[in-house]
Fold this protein.
Amino acid sequence: MSWFAWTLVLAGAVCHALWNLIAKRVASGGAPFVWLYGVVSLCWLTPLAIWQAQALIWTPAMLAVVLGSALLHAVYSLVLQRGYQRAPFSLVYPLARGSGPLLSALGATLWLAEAPSVRGWGGIALLIAGIGLLSRAGQTEVDPARQRAGIGWGLTTGACIAAYTLVDGVAVKTLAMPPLVFYGYSLLARSVLLAPLAWRQPQAMRRQARDHWRAALLVGVLSPLAYALVLFALQIAPLSYVAPVREVSMLCWPAGWARVIWARP
């Protein structure tokens, strides 16, 4: 990976850690909160996507990856919120961010014909091992039922991460779609898919908008920014390297801060 790709991924990792910490604080929001911050994202991302899409010639494959990515990201968002409701952040987040890149790297090797070097696989293994150690830290105070729930939801979230990473890699690498166009239209499709679920309880939607509008604004900016930086990095670097490196978001917080914030139920 070039230094520019490293810079993009590391900046995205910082944004990712920030928005996940905010999302944990309002984990009870569920689908309404996910839909709200998605709408915030659309407000600033859609004009950029439309502007860049003017010269793009759409193909059936492009439409397929946009819709597929939208569905996978929607499932990921709901699974992540449910995991934060049922288990500690300090267990769900590391497991998700550790299992996701491992599955992504394996998938990139099988379906995108990428072949990391021996040193590359070693680095991936060390990074994932470090994330695994972090997921064990501080878990002695968590009851067994919440531990089991955290493991289940963390691994399920990791599988979702791997699935959408591979689809998105095909979009920007194989189909050469501009990242902002791909992500903007995918986000629009995701918001449409989530709307019936989010508005099933209008009172819950209004309560989330009233009580957590600041969190929705922050996540609505940081979440797409974090992933857009990763998509730009995918244009110039192998997916099998980008996916694991972006998980240094696990290391973006001093241990003291992480322990205070992640220990909250």
